[in-house]
Specification:
seven-stranded mixed β-sheet; Glutaredoxin; globular; alpha+beta; two-stranded antiparallel sheet
């Protein structure tokens, strides 16, 4: 003999109401059915429990496409690239001497007042083609990649630069999104090929890293500048910039980023005098998706 209890649908509805299901999932079919069954149908205790379980399961499966508040909160806590760069800057400023902070600020101001931002290639300009060696010694050309789709072209100063390392790591994380938009990512650096290989291996970079020794391509794009003597001396004594770059020019590129369409036209340009500011990957992706 079954244990039968007169469990009205309204009682079951009160159960899931109290346990937030009706408010959380107002369009759930089972909840709608129960809501309409106001009179006392009799069900076994087991059937009542099963119905509650079905409500829970259908609410769970029927709303997989709706992110929960917890999921949205987690997404919102992912820092932007600039947030990560600002955190690194704050950590440096907390321990750097006032003299060094003043020196680097003067170097950035010198770049800002040099006219380089205005003279560099801009949106609507034709991107100069180039052929450079990658970290494996292979020759890679911009035009060959443009035949496959748009290109995100970015410069980094060197593996010695912590802001560059943060940016490269983030770009690698965002690479699947660029690829889904049909784009290829190419990073240029004035480092010698053996140095750029070390950077590529350290971050397990799955995109092209090309050595622009002498900054010849950077010069064609108008993004190369000369360090002020005091900053050049600081870099040389700290990590031997001349060894990294294979010359004594004391020149570096801006941390510039361009998006170039299949016709070789620049469709996006990020130019900033402060190397601690970089193009935000989400902004790059939005531009690629609009092409």
């Amino acid at each position: 003999m079954k244990w039968v209890l007169p469990i009205p649908a309204a009682y079951l509805l009160e159960f899931h109401r109290n346990s937030f299901f009706e408010n959380q999932y107002p369009n759930n079919l089972l909840i709608k059915v129960l809501n309409k069954s106001k009179q006392g149908m009799k069900v076994t205790y087991g059937a009542g429990v099963m119905m509650i379980c079905l409500i829970m399961m259908s609410c769970q499966s029927g709303n997989n496409n709706e992110p929960t508040n917890a999921m949205m909160s987690n997404k919102e806590t992912i820092p932007s690239l600039q947030d990560s760069l600002d955190a690194r800057k704050a950590a440096w400023e907390a321990k750097a001497s006032d003299e060094k902070k003043k020196l680097y600020a003067e170097g950035i101001e010198d770049v800002a007042s040099s006219g380089i931002l205005q003279n560099a290639k801009q949106v609507g300009d034709q991107a100069p083609d180039f052929t450079l060696q990658n970290a494996l010694g292979e020759h890679v050309s911009l035009s060959a990649y443009l035949e496959k789709g748009p290109v995100v072209l970015t410069w980094y100063r060197g593996g010695w630069c912590p802001y560059c390392n943060i940016t490269l790591h983030r770009l690698q994380e965002e690479l699947p999104g660029f690829q889904a938009a049909g784009a290829h990512l190419i990073a240029l650096t004035p480092e010698r090929p053996d140095k750029s290989l070390s950077t590529k291996e350290k971050h397990d970079l799955q995109f092209e890293v090309l050595s622009d020794v002498g900054n010849n391509v950077a010069r064609d794009y108008g993004v190369v500048f000369k360090l002020i003597p005091e900053v050049a001396e600081s870099y040389q004594s700290s990590f031997d910039l001349h060894d990294y770059n294979g010359d004594t020019s004391d020149e570096l590129p801006l941390a510039a980023t361009y998006i170039i369409d299949k016709n070789g036209v620049i469709r996006y340009a990020f130019l900033h005098p402060d190397y601690r500011h970089r193009a935000e990957p989400e902004e790059l992706l939005r531009t690629l998706q609009s092409l």
